[in-house]
Specification:
Dihydrodipicolinate Reductase, domain 2; 24% strand; globular; binds nicotinamide-adenine-dinucleotide
């Protein structure tokens, strides 16, 4: 029997998780919630994804617009084994109580604090921590990006100290909220929360972060330096990443010099929605000087956490013991590859 999944919050992350679940043979989407009769609600209806109102008070608006509803979130919770909560950040606390009452497992996203679940998840670094758990949190897009490249490097060469400067996209492409149109804004509270967030998964990592927000919707760019314990050559670092799933190389020499060109590549490759679920590393932007590694990476904020949500469901529902088998299955079904 397939694991029955509900999605609370069918927005940027929720609709992508729904798409990814539909590609799996061991789980199925039972329904998604919306708050308003938006185009996304209409699309869910069109795709025959059962639609539920997040709260009773929202039902009337859907009915007025003639949008077919299957009930409210409370009804959905009686039909699922697990909920992926992709509501806007900091709403999870209220919903967690509902999931608990319904005896349903829940996965939260990076906009929530670690404490909401007590387990922060990354497929490579700590798949087993979520094994059978009732609640877990898939860490944010930036944290996922940092862990994807730092975990294998730390594993093979060891790290004394890591510093990352993050250039963050101001808003998602479809968002009205977001950054200043013509300014770069530093995060003044230092070090930024990204380092401690990485430590929710890799508590031993000595990492500090700073960040600025830039007027772009495309991607986040990270400039990372890591003091290694063992000597390494640039090619050896690249070889470690080459053997790690969900890391993709691009090259400035081949004309990919910006986040815009990476997104164009995703569209040229006919990736669903033009997404890049891998972390993108410039192979000609990797350098080791003595024992210090320098590199740049780009994060597609709307999609890199999607495969992690699928693996997290497998771990929490005890569907697959071996992290690599889950990762490979997820990647194969989502068309992620080198
Ligand atoms: P979003 O605003 O695109 O989508 C949120 C969805 O929740 C919308 O469909 C909205 O209608 C719905 N919603 C609003 N109020 C609700 C309520 N009371 N009950 C139920 N649903 C409600 O947000 P998003 O970007 O998908 O972010 C969701 C979570 O994922 C956040 O924790 C965020 O921090 C995290 N995240 C976002 C990104 C990103 O870059 N977009 C990346 C990684 C993680």
């Amino acid at each position: 029997m397939k694991v029955r999944v509900g999605i609370n919050g069918y927005g940027t992350i929720g609709k992508r998780v729904a798409f990814a679940i539909a590609k799996q043979d061991d789980m199925e989407i039972v329904g998604v919630t919306k708050t308003k009769p938006s185009y996304e609600a209409r699309l869910a209806n069109k795709e025959n994804i059962p639609l539920y109102a997040a709260k009773q008070e929202f039902v009337e608006a859907f009915e007025k617009e003639g949008i077919k509803m299957a009930g409210t979130l409370e009804d959905l919770l009686t039909k699922v084994d697990i909920v992926v909560d992709a509501t806007p950040g900091k709403m999870g606390k209220e919903y967690r109580a509902m999931y608990e009452k319904a005896g349903v497992k829940g996965i939260f996203q990076g906009g929530e604090e670690h404490g909401i679940a007590g387990i922060s998840f990354n497929s490579f670094a700590n798949y087993h921590e979520a094994w059978g758990a009732q609640f877990a949190r898939v860490v944010s897009c930036n944290t996922t990006g940092l862990i994807r490249t730092l975990f294998p490097v730390d594993n093979v060469f060891g790290t004394e100290r890591v510093f990352a400067a993050l250039v963050r996209r101001g808003a998602d492409p479809a968002d009205k909220k977001g950054a200043l149109l013509n300014a770069v804004e530093p995060t003044l509270k230092l070090p930024t929360h990204h380092g401690p967030d990485v430590q929710t998964v890799m508590p031993w990592l000595n990492i500090q972060t700073m960040s600025v927000t830039a007027p772009t919707t495309m991607m986040h760019i990270h400039c990372v330096t890591a003091d290694l314990k063992k000597k390494a050559k640039g090619e050896e670092i690249l070889s470690v990443w080459d053997n790690t799933p969900r890391i993709k190389f691009v090259s400035g020499k081949h004309g990919i010099k910006s986040s815009a060109q990476i997104m164009e590549l995703a569209r040229d490759l006919n990736r669903p929605r033009g997404d890049f679920m891998e972390i993108i590393v410039w192979e000609d932007g990797v350098k080791v000087v003595e024992k210090t590694l320098y590199y740049y990476q780009a994060i597609h904020q709307e999609s890199d956490v999607i495969p992690e949500n699928i693996d997290c469901i497998r771990s929490m529902m005890k569907l697959e013991k071996d992290p690599l088998r889950s990762i490979r299955k997820t990647d194969r079904t989502l068309g992620i590859g080198k």
